[in-house]
Each structure stands twice: as structure tokens, then as C-alpha cells.
Amino acid sequence: MSKPIVGFAGMTHLGINSAAATAAQGFPVFGYDADLALIAGLRARRMPIAEPGLDDLVAAHAERLSFTDKIADLKQCDVVYIAADVPTDDEAKSDLGPIRALIDGVAKMLREDAVLVVLCQVPPGFCRALTQIPYARVIYQVETLIFGRAVERAMRPERFIVGVDDPSRPLPAAYRQVLESFGCPILPMRYESAELAKISINFCLVASVTVANVLAEISEAVGADWAEIVPALKLDKRIGPKAYLKPGLGLSGGNLERDLRTILDIGEGRGTDVGLVRAWFGNSAHRKDWTWRTLQKILSDNSRARIAVLGLAYKENTNSTKNSPALQLLSHLKNRQVRVHDPVVPNSVAPFTEAASSALTCAKGADVLVIATPWPEYRELTPSALASAMAGRVIIDPYRMLDGRAAAAAGFTYHTLGMPALRPDPC
To answer: What is the pLDDT of residues 98-119, one digit of tens each?
Structure first.
């Protein structure tokens, strides 16, 4: 059987990684976007996003991966994915207008026997409404994108959740061939179930995040160490070894809060009790300011303190700053002396700050060091090197990138999530 030709419309984070992974399975792939500059960059192998392994993946399968700004090129495709990122506003509400416009434009190009797959995340009811318009067969596929791990997730998906108009009908042959090439379970279900399945997965993740955040804060208050408790929970079969129990600074990125907002809007419209969802929003907002609350206690009235902030992205291995706790912290520091460093995000996102070329340069002369994003390279910092570089002796390290006891031994007061501050031995 010949390989189907696959198209991806929307060369955003989701589209680029998905297109590259599909080309890696041996399929000819068209990556379409109307942005001429974006396509020119992709043709020159300049990735517009930071994602570990993506440059190498695209280069390795370049002969099967064509980037185009001509939507008519999608006429050649047997399967076309709508793979644009869905933008969200400051209230986590999705803007579906650009997605609908992209679907309308792509649908006019498709052959009658082609398959249109909505890969970007949409609310329940979206795809059922599309079937009222004479497109080719419409399918919804739950995306598995995780920023910072997008290549891994695209290449080795855990399963494919597939929404269709009638789950009893077989999937189109060309589309099934694409899915089966990845060698993972395929779960067909009705549109609404698939659309809600993605949200359900994120709800379970939010529950785990919130449990970890609340109990880590309790640990700080009572003198416990949350990191000591986590192994006991992961040995409980009802929770499991892969449970997400690491405390953090609220819900960052855009996907989790978007799903909470979707259910909040549906629930409020239907008279459903969604108080728990409001509580999750509230807990997230509270946690995002943990670093600022800690810093306030340290700075007191010292307005001249020099602050070094390591990390601007919302998490490691991505250039996205959506809902970044680092930027939340910096919003409180506009009248302070602040130097910042991030491996991929420029300090133009916080223009009142001074940029540093390296983590250690950022720390030089600082009174307080904040590790705001858990970039792996920050683990290489040693307390002794920081003690030589810094003027002050305070480290705020929410994600435990450093050895707290070693930091205290080097003379630092060390603050982290889930345990009381460690202080230098007074002797």
C-alpha cells in the first residue's frame, strides 16, 4: 500500500512537531502556513520555537517534509490536520475564530475522499457542528503536546483518542494507516467524548498539582519535608509511581487554565456546581505569588537590594512565557534593581531588567538569587561558586535545583517549596 500524503495546516508549536513526527514515520508531509516569513524560516531549517530535538528531527526527515505558504498544495493530501495553536486570552478563554477560519480555508482545497482532522484543542460540541457543513469526513484527534517534551510526545504517543460522528464505522484507511504507524492504542469515540477526554486528562493533572501545592505549603508550616512524603504516596497503588506530586508555582502555560475555564463556563451555564474549579483557579493564583511573598519577607524595606532572577520561560525546555511565574514575580519588581537570565527567552519580555549572558554572571553582585524556571543548566551551579559571585546570602529556589543543605553550609539562607527555610549553622 502506498503511503498517504499528509498535510498539517498551521505551523505553530503543535503543527511543526506533529508534521516532523509524521514525516519520521515515512509519510510525505506538507506543512502549510499563510505566514510567508515563517515558511521561509522553516525552509531554511530555522525553527521558530525552542524544543529539544526538533531541529535534528526536521533535518533528519527533510526529504519528506515540505513547507509551503500555498494552501492549494493541500489538494494533494489524503489526510489534512488542522494543527494551529488555539490562542487564549487573560481569562483563559479560547479564541476559536482563527481556527474556524483556517478550517474553512482548508476545506475548500480538499478532495472529496480526503480526511479533515481537527488536532488542535476545541471545546465539546465544536466538531459536531462542523459536520453540518459539506466538508470531507471530519475527525477530532486529541493532541498530546507538552511544551519542552513535544518531540518525545509526538514520536512516542501513549495512545490516540479519536472523535468521530459514529464510532461504529471504521476509520478511513489512509487515516488509520497514519495512526497505526506509531504503534500505540487507538481509542475511537463520539466527538463530544473525545473533546471532553482531553479536558478530563488535564483536570486529573490539575487535581494532582493542587494536592501537591497545598500539602507542600502545609509542610513548610509544620516543619515537614514534602520531598520525603512523595515516595510514600507513589508506593500506594491507588496513586501510583507516575503521579504528579511535585509542588510548583500554580498552573502555568495556557492549556490547563483554558480547560478549567471551558468547564467553568459550561457548568455555570447549566447550573452545575463548579465551586471546585473556582477553588483551583484561586489556588493557582495564590501559588504563583509564593516567590514574591517569600521575597517580600526578605527585602522588607531594602529597596536597593540587587535581585538576580534565573529563568523567564514558564517552564524548562521551551521559549513560551504564557502565564510564567517568573514574569508574575517580575511584575512586582519594576522599581527594583533586577538582572535576569534565560537560555532562550530574551529579557525584552521584561524590558526594565538587565540581561546577563550566563547564570553565574546574572548572580554576580546580587543580594538575592531567585531560580524562577527549572532549566537543567541551573543544576550545574554550585553554592561555592554562587558564594564567590554574590554579595548577599539568600537563595529562593522553588524547584530544588540546588542542594539546599550544601547552600546552607556555604552560608546561604535557602528557601524552597515544601519545607521550612534552611539557614546557615550559627556555629
So the answer is: 999 999 999 999 998 999 999 9
Q: What is the pLDDT of residue 94?
A: 85
Partners of residue 188 on adjacent β-strands: 162
Per DSSP, the three-state class of 66 is: strand
Which CATH fold topology does 290-415 show?
A: Rossmann fold (3.40.50)
Task: Please give the mean pLDDT across all residues of the chain.
Answer: 93
- Cα separation of the two ends of the chain: 76
Q: What are 138's strand-pairing partners?
A: 116
The lowest-confidence range among 78-92, 177-191, 307-321 is 78-92
The pLDDT of residue 132 is 66
Chosen CATH of 199-288 out of 2.60.120.340, 1.10.1040.10, 3.40.50.11480, 1.10.8.80: 1.10.1040.10
Angle at which helix 191-222 crosses helix 255-270, to 10 degrees, equals: 110
pTM score, two decimals?
0.82
The whole-angstrom separation of Cα 311 and Cα 374 is 7
Is 199-288's fold the same as 290-415's?
A: no
Rg (CA), the chain: 24
For residue range 236-279, list pLDDT tens digits in order: 998 988 888 889 999 888 788 888 898 888 888 888 888 988 99
Report phi then psi at 357, rounded to 5: -85, -15
Q: What is the arrangement of strands in the sheet containing 29-32, beginning at the earlier edge strand?
A: 65-68, 29-32, 6-9, 79-82, 115-118, 137-141, 160-164, 186-190
Q: 346 falls in which pLDDT band (50, 70, 90)?
A: very high
Instruction: Domain 6-192: state its class.
Output: alpha beta
3-state secondary structure 218-285: HHHHHCCCHHHHHHHHHCCCCCCCCCCCCCCCCCCCCHHHHHHHHHHHHHHHHCCCCHHHHHHHHHHH
Tell me the domain boundaries of the chain.
6-192, 199-288, 290-415
Could you tell me the three cell numbers for 17? 512537531
Mean pLDDT, range 305-325, rounded to an integer: 94
Cβ contacts of residue 48 below 8 Å, gap of 6+?
11, 16, 38, 41, 42
Contact 308, 362 (CB under 8 A): yes
Q: How many helices (H) and strands (E) does the chain have?
A: 16, 14
